[in-house]
Design goal:
Structural class: mainly beta
Shape: globular
Strand order of the largest sheet: 1-3-4-5-6-7-8-11-12
Number of helices: 5
Distance between the termini: 43 Å
CATH class: Mainly Beta
CATH architecture: Beta Barrel
CATH topology: Acetoacetate decarboxylase-like
Number of domains: 1
Length: 295
C-alpha cells in the first residue's frame, strides 16, 4: 500500500531525529518496544478508568520530519515503513471515574475529538501525543489542563447515529483565539482483520505529555480494539489545521487530502496508571528507567 507518493517526499531538517542521534551516541536511547495488541501489566495505583465508545479513526500518512517539531522533548515520531501518522479520533467518553470509585455523574460522560501524533521515547516506549483534545464538558477541560497539562479545548459537539448505517460527528470550538469546526460522516462496515498498520495505530499503551518542564508517560490498559472497516462519506475538518498541521495533510494544491486509513470500533474499557518520566535518569553516565512519579 503506497500511502504517500514518493515524488512528494522532499528532505527537510528533522530536528527530533538529530537530537536523538546525538543522544544515541551516549547510549541514552533504547530501541522501540515491539508492537503488541495486548496491553502490558499496568501496575498500581490505577488513577482513572473510562470507556471509549463509537470510535471513528481517521489517519493521514506523513513524513516524520513534518511532525517532529510538535513532539515533546525526549520523544521522536514513531515510524512504520518510513511514515508516521496524523490521527483524528472521534468518540463518546462514558463512565469516567477515579480509581475503583463510582463513575462521575454527568461529568464522567462526554464527547471528545482529538488530534494526535505517534511517538516513541528514550526508553523505547511507544505512545501518542495529543495536539488537541476537544470536549463538550467545560469542567473536564479545565481539570485536564490543570491536572495533567493536556491541551483540552471546550467545544460544542454532537454524535448522531441514523440507526446503524451512518455515524456523524460534529465539533465546533468554543475556545478563545481559535475558530475551527469539523464534520465527519462514516459508514461502518465488516469486521476488520488487524494488520501491522492497525496495530501500529491502535496498540498504544500510553501517552506522552509535558508537565513541570519535563516529558512524562501516562500508561493505560484496555482489551484489544474490536475494529471494523469504515467508508468515509463526508469530511469537512478544520481541527487538524487548527493545531498547525494544515500543510502536513495537504495535497499538491494545498487542499486537505482524504485520510489514508479509516476505521470504526464499538469501543473498549480503559484504565490509566500513574505517570512516569519519559526520559531515563543517568547515574554515573548510565541510563536508567527509574524516576519519581508526577503525582
Amino acid at each position: 500500500m503506497v500511502l504517500v507518493p514518493r515524488s512528494a517526499v522532499k528532505p527537510l531538517p528533522d530536528i527530533a531525529a538529530m537530537r536523538f542521534a546525538r543522544a544515541r551516541m551516549f547510549g541514552m536511547v533504547a530501541e522501540p518496544e515491539p508492537v503488541s495488541d495486548l496491553a502490558p501489566e499496568l501496575g498500581r495505583p490505577r488513577l482513572l478508568r473510562q470507556q471509549w465508545r463509537d470510535v471513528a479513526f481517521l489517519h493521514w500518512a506523513v513524513r516524520p520530519e513534518q511532525v517532529g517539531p510538535f513532539l515533546p522533548r525526549g520523544t521522536r515520531p514513531d515510524v512504520l515503513d518510513g511514515h508516521t501518522y496524523v490521527g483524528l479520533v472521534l468518540f463518546r467518553m462514558v463512565g469516567t471515574g477515579f480509581g475503583r470509585g463510582p463513575p462521575l455523574p454527568w461529568l464522567g460522560t462526554f464527547l471528545e475529538t482529538n488530534v494526535r501524533l505517534y511517538s516513541v521515547d528514550e526508553t523505547g516506549r511507544r505512545g501518542v501525543v495529543f495536539l488537541s483534545l476537544d470536549a463538550d464538558r467545560a469542567p473536564i477541560v479545565a481539570a485536564a489542563r490543570v491536572g495533567f497539562g493536556l491541551p483540552y479545548r471546550w467545544a460544542r459537539m454532537r454524535v448522531a447515529d441514523d440507526g446503524g448505517a451512518l455515524r456523524t460527528y460534529t465539533t465546533s470550538l468554543r475556545w478563545p483565539g481559535v475558530r475551527a469546526s469539523s464534520k465527519v460522516v462514516i459508514r461502518p462496515g465488516e469486521d476488520l482483520v488487524t494488520g501491522p498498520l492497525e496495530s501500529f495505530l491502535t496498540a498504544r499503551w500510553g501517552l506522552h505529555t509535558t508537565r513541570f518542564g519535563r516529558t512524562w508517560y501516562l500508561p493505560n490498559s484496555h482489551e484489544p480494539w474490536p475494529l471494523r472497516a469504515a467508508d468515509l462519506v463526508e469530511i469537512d475538518d478544520g481541527l487538524v489545521a487548527s493545531v498547525g498541521l494544515r500543510n502536513a495533510i495537504a495535497d499538491s494544491d494545498g487542499r486537505q487530502r482524504r485520510p489514508d486509513h479509516v476505521a470504526f470500533s464499538p469501543g473498549v474499557s480503559a484504565e490509566f496508571g500513574r505517570p512516569r518520566p519519559a526520559t531515563p535518569h543517568t547515574r554515573g553516565g548510565a541510563a536508567t528507567r527509574h524516576g519519581r512519579p508526577m503525582c
